[in-house]
Amino acid sequence: MTAPADTVPASQTTTPALEVRDLVVRYGSGRKARNAPPAVDGVSFDIAPGETLGLVGESGSGKSTIGKAVLGLQLPSAGAVRVHGQDITSMSLKKRSTQVADLRVVFQDPYSSLNPARTIGQTLVEPLRLMGIKGSEALLKARSGLESVGLPGDAIDRYPAQFSGGQRQRIAIARALVCDPKVVVLDEPVSALDLSTQAQVLNLLADLRDQRGLSFLFIAHDLGVVRFLSQRTVVLYRGQIMETGPVEAVNSTPRHPYTVALTAAAPVPRPAEQAARRAAREAAGFGTAGAAAPSATGCPFVPRCPLATDVCVEQRPPLRLVGDTRTACHHAEQVRAL
Ligand SMILES: Nc1ncnc2c1ncn2[C@@H]1O[C@H](COP(=O)(O)OP(=O)(O)O)[C@@H](O)[C@H]1O
Ligand code: SF4
Ligand SMILES: [Mg+2]
User: Fold this and answer.
1) What pLDDT, on a 0 to 100 scale, did the predictor assign at position 164?
2) 62 CB near ligand 1 (under 6 Å)
3) What is the CATH topology of the domain spanning 18-102+181-337?
4) For ligand 2, is residue 286 a contact (CB within 6 Å)?
């Protein structure tokens, strides 16, 4: 099978663990919704078995919408989602919960993602029950799931309120992994945690991935966090892929002006360096996130881009290989100068 030109390939030889093809998601209904720009606009990527793909972009760029479309929580307007070659694009949530054990999720907020009225045991046993695993076998799996994320087996009889944010996120990870999935969508799994807890949870995720050969779609707004866990990065802006490639190349030699702006905006621990980065970003002439809406036909980054010319307004740039990354920019060759 040959991947289309704008697809982000995982591997030429194996069936990808997850395939997303030409995904379009529009919210709402009626003429107004049809005329509004889609939240996700023609996104394609693959994730190989055992690989982590980082999906990064500012708030509102469409990351969670992609995650929701993959998980069946939002019906795509167009495009396809396949897990190990199986097309699950239009499969109902009910059917997925009993048939698609391969695909699970961890959400951002450890406080709202666990039901406060249920014990941890009840929370962990529920997905197993849907898969037909019950009784002592389910309890055994729930206990071993808790131990695999570094929590004692007796946590099973306690309630979410008795745990810290980091512990709750470990429980959410145990719930995601209890059915032995192959693909896990992680939607900003550490964004709500303090820095030292973030590092612990990221290390745990890396260990579990490597032990079990998991594939992760790892969603974050911070390139630095993505870098820690991912092999490849997809940079998203207004629902479109701006740049993609090996994580080191995207971080160290970005070829898209938006990636440059995102890198400059990433938080760093030293205030002086932060101020220098902000000054450099302003000197380069980047607009802010609230800039005017772009034209529907051209590059979405036009209103914020210091390199924009007429061709950028008129033609949407396709993804093409420039250096070590694929970038959707007419003037990618000039980006080094920014
Ligand atoms: N349920 C919804 N109804 C209407 N618009 C939505 C809904 N969820 C998200 N959006 C819009 O879709 C766009 C992408 O949102 P989202 O996928 O949540 O972005 P991100 O996760 O990158 O912050 C935003 O403009 C957001 O306002
Ligand atoms: S295509 Fe033009 S407007 Fe878009 S990022 Fe490249 S230079 Fe900027
Ligand atoms: Mg989000």
Assistant:
1) 95
2) yes
3) Rossmann fold (3.40.50)
4) no
Helices (H) and strands (E) in the chain, counts: 12, 12
Pick the range with the lowest mean pLDDT from 9-18, 36-45, 107-116, 223-232.
9-18
Q: Counting beta carbons within 10 angstroms of the beta carbon of residue 279, is it exposed (0 to 12), middle (13 to 18) or buried (19 or more)?
A: exposed
Q: Which residues contact 109 (CB under 8 A, 6 or more apart)?
A: 192
Residue-wise pLDDT tens digits, 277-328: 777 777 777 777 766 777 788 999 999 999 999 999 999 999 999 999 999 9
Tokens of 28: 């709402």
Rounded distance between C-alpha atoms, residue 321 and residue 241, angstroms: 13
110 C-beta closer than 6 A to ligand 1: no
Query: How far is it, in rounded angstroms, from Cα 161 to Cα 145?
Result: 19
Q: What letter would DSSP give residue 46?
A: E
Residue owning tokens 């919960």: 97
Tell me how far CA of residue 214 lies from CA of 3, 23, 303, in angstroms: 22, 23, 39
Q: What is the DSSP string of 149-175?
A: TT--GGGGGS-GGGS-HHHHHHHHHHH
The SS3 assignment for 213 reads: coil
Nearest ligand 2 atom to the CA of 256 is 5
Listed by start position, the domains of the chain span 18-102+181-337, 116-180
Q: Are strands 232-237 and 215-220 parallel, antiparallel or unpaired?
A: unpaired
Q: Of 132-136, 148-152, 225-229, 333-337, which gets the smallest average pLDDT?
A: 333-337
- Kindly report, residue by residue over 258-273, the tens digit of the pLDDT: 999 988 877 777 778 7
Distance between CA 53 and CA 75 in Å, rounded?
22
CA 58 / ligand 3 centre spacing (Å): 9
